[in-house]
Amino acid sequence: MNTQHSDLHQSLVGLFQQLGMYAQANKIATDPQLHFLDTIGFNRQLDRYDIDFSVLPADHKKMMCAIHPFVVIPSDSQAFVARRKDERLEQLAADQTWQPLTNITSMAGAHMVLIEHLPGQRGEQSRFTQELDKRRKWYRPVFWLSLLASITGLTVPLFTMAVYDKVIGGQAPAELPGIAMGAILALAILVVCRIVRAAILCSVSNRMARDLSDMTFSRLLHMPLMVLGRVGISNHIARLRNAERVRMLFSGPGGAGLIDIPFTLIALFTIVLLSGWLVVVPVGMLGLYYLIARGLQKYAQRASPTLSTKHQNSINELTKQLLALKTSGNYSGWIERFIRQTRINCQQNFAYAKRNGLNQAVSHGLSLMTALVTVFTGIFLVLDQSITAGALIASTMLIWRITGPAQLAFASLPKMAMLKSASQQFDNFMKVKTENNELRLEIPDSSGPPSLKFQHVTLRFSATQEPVLSSIDFEICPGEVAVVIGPNQAGKSTLLQAALGVIEPQSGFITINDRNLTQYDPTNFRHWAGYAPAQPDLFPGTLADNLRISRPEATEEELQQALLEAGAATLLDTLGGSLNQDLFEQGYSTLTAIEGSYISLARALLKRSPLLLLDEPIANQNPRARRQFVHTLEQLKGRHTVLFSSHDPELIKHADKVLVLDKGCLVYAGPQPQSQPVQEA
Fold this sequence. Notes:
- By secondary structure, this protein is α+β, with helices and mostly antiparallel strands.
- It folds into 3 domains: about 5-125, Cathepsin B, Chain A (Alpha-Beta Complex), CATH 3.90.70; about 130-430, Up-down Bundle (ABC transporter transmembrane region fold); about 450-680, Rossmann fold (3-Layer(aba) Sandwich), CATH 3.40.50.
- Helix content is about 55%, strand content about 15%.
- It is built from 26 helices and 16 strands.
- The strands form 3 sheets. A 6-stranded antiparallel sheet has the order 1-6-2-3-4-5, with helices on one face. It has a 6-stranded mixed sheet with strand order 12-13-14-9-15-16, with helices on both faces.
- The longest helix is centred in the middle third of the chain and has 52 residues, at about 330-385.
- The protein is elongated, with a radius of gyration of 34 Å.
- The relative contact order is 0.07.
- Mean pLDDT is about 80; it is low at about 675-680.
């Protein structure tokens, strides 16, 4: 189903129009990046505008239950928009008129995208619960498989009772083959039901974990950078791991135990039929077991580790700063801190594991005690001839059918609490506003270099800190090359990130071509603009893979040209001119920060964007790289608008305009001064 279709673009535009989302429809219609969509891209656009949907095989019954217009994607013809109108189905024709939909039965292999909720129409139901509801079609098969498994699970106790009472007690060995065949057949059904149920639970839990991870990752990518920065990387990783917790709970033995709990009533009912009021014993022991397990759970929870997050942060810090620590030659203090945290974390984990072990030991002991109390109580019933000896043995065996799931369920109580916490975190996370909204739909103009203007821009990272940028005012005309200079911590990088739109100021306006930056679609704008950060980011893969992050369709000739324009000729020589050299061949990057900065600069230049934002290009002041980049700047003038930061006087003097920052304030903005001190500020 994942193939590209131009008709998907038309169907998506038509769907948004029929949903009343005309601004979004116009944006999609005019966005050149969306003219050829695959089904994944189609779904991403729905996610982007906060529309809940389901992708299902085409089914007439489900179509007749659709509330909103939907899209049908046949396997061998063009996709189209359809709707339910009273008791009939209609499809949207090319002339935007509704025509009867008649060929439903011939849509073998077709899929449909059903719209469930429009933005702001979800009500109070949590997103996590909605994802569970989407798997509702599996509830029924899991129920019937569990019921059949519970009934056939009575085979061994009943077989034992029949052998003891009829074959041995009744001296009727001829009955044994028939009883044995029935027991074998029932056991085979039990095994098949368990295997099929486990496969269904594993498949459903894996798909749900996949969908939750996709939703979380997509949400992270579209959240404002300042919000992400306040939370921290470890919390983002924890959110992605929440999906794994869901998978482990439902696909593990604890999930099967939770599902089997309601079906223990079958075993209890069977004990009533076999032994009468003897059923009071397991019921009473289950109540006692529940009270003790709850107390032990609280006891274990009080020993829950409190240093895990700090310890994990230390490990993350170690992986990122290992080279700096080794080269400093003085890392004894860091080692002492890490060892201290590791020791405390291990002690806390040991105490928590010990209390959990006590919980498991007590639960196992109570299970044995339940069986023993049942046997001793049943002996008096056998002596009183109220029940047979075989019935007592069968009832004792059925006890394990009750205490086994109960033991697994109680052992899973911490996981249930973890799942509840994970679902609440997921719901709260999905409520956080993203950068996407109905007011940010403009697409940047690629026909020529843009103008860039800051108007009274003030930005601070927290209310208790001084502004990083304070009332910044300047304008860069189309095709100009401007440089931002100033001491470290003056706000140069923040200014470039604000111009890119990844950081939003608290007051003031940033305009591109006299249009407020907040009106542009953030994804389209960043795809359109070229940005090179001061700190290079390399990804596992080849040099070509790292460059094509900014422009996947680029040819090898274009990649080499971008590297040369970035002054990376020495990097190409080091790699033997090969773009397919794995940068992480030894498990870590062998490139220096300087070589990494060449790659970041080449990524930005590879876009051929009308707007280039470059943070400290050629910061190493390599003479050969500087000469090449100066040549590149001269080539960009007039055809691209360039804003870059630098401390290099040789680069600064080639700018058309100079912006001087000091402690977040703009102290000069104008043409290239003639005096040397200003050039070297």
